[in-house]
Design goal:
Elements: H1 7-23, H2 34-48, H3 62-100, E1 106-109, E2 114-117, H4 118-133, H5 136-150, H6 161-204, H7 210-228, H8 230-255
Antiparallel strand pairs: 1-2
Helix pairs in contact: 1-2, 1-3, 3-4, 3-6, 3-8, 4-8, 5-8, 6-7, 6-8
């Protein structure tokens, strides 16, 4: 077999995998060096060579450049749709912090380069640990490799791919907000009851300064409910991982040829 004849094909495979690792959870973090992502994409391409059958590509012309662009879009889409659901966890933590009085208390995240809420950051760290514990990264990697069966590198995307991706994006965003509400619901309900109790207390004891008493009570309730509801949180994260797997399969079926 002439390796040089199939080199353009394997370059397309490498571009898709490299784009996937740039946007997928765990791999996309800034703490993962860029040369590691490129090297991991290269060795994954070598492993994929034993799974798919290469097709010789005649010329590396302008058409080939468009194929590279297509592979970049497919790889980024696979990684992005998986990452959006992970963002639901941080969104749920932001909802909690806004109600419990921690909205102004943020911390710098070196992975993303932005300020993040404390509870959202804690939820995200716990979710990533569970994600790795149940081999969620293997599931994503398996989906990226399976994408070559549904979307061959040498083939163009079907004409209805953009419409299908738009519908799937709306569905994933809906699931993201729904999961964020499920994560934050116990905490929001508790803080709401605390607000009602403080309001009744202020009517009975007008001399009491709620700004002095209310914030410590809210923080105490916040941390108590946070640790009591951790089993529910892990259950929701498990459901999120299942939704992530289903979304990856739906994406491949929708934009596959």
């Amino acid at each position: 077999m002439d390796i040089l004849a199939f080199l353009p094909y394997w370059l397309l495979v490498f571009v898709r995998l490299a784009s996937f690792f740039l946007a997928a959870p765990v791999w996309k973090d800034k703490q993962v060096p860029g040369h590691f992502k490129i090297g991991f994409a290269f060795f994954t391409t070598v492993l994929v060579s034993g799974v798919i059958e290469p097709v010789p590509i005649a010329e590396m012309d302008s058409i080939y450049t468009l194929l590279i662009l297509k592979e970049t879009i497919v790889g980024l889409s696979l990684g992005f749709f998986a990452s959006v659901l992970i963002y639901a966890i941080q969104l749920g933590g932001s909802f909690v912090d806004m109600q419990s009085g921690l909205a102004m208390s943020t911390m710098f995240n070196p992975q993303t380069g932005v300020q993040e809420h404390i509870t959202g950051r804690f939820y995200y760290a716990m979710a990533i640990l569970l994600f790795l514990a149940v081999d969620g990264h293997h599931i994503l990697l398996q989906g990226a490799i399976a994408s070559f069966q549904w979307i061959p590198p040498e083939m163009w995307l079907p004409s209805e791919a953009s419409e299908n991706m738009a519908k799937l994006s709306l569905s994933i965003l809906k699931n993201m907000f729904w999961i964020a509400v499920l994560i934050a619901a116990p905490m929001l309900g508790t803080i709401f009851m605390v607000d009602i109790a403080l309001g009744m207390l202020s009517k009975m004891v007008p001399q009491m300064n709620l700004f002095v008493v209310g914030i410590p009570i809210k923080l105490f309730a916040h941390y108590i409910v946070l640790f009591v509801t951790m089993p529910v949180f892990f259950y929701v994260v498990g459901m999120l991982i299942r939704v992530m797997t289903q979304s990856t399969g739906q994406l491949l079926k929708m934009i596959g040829t």
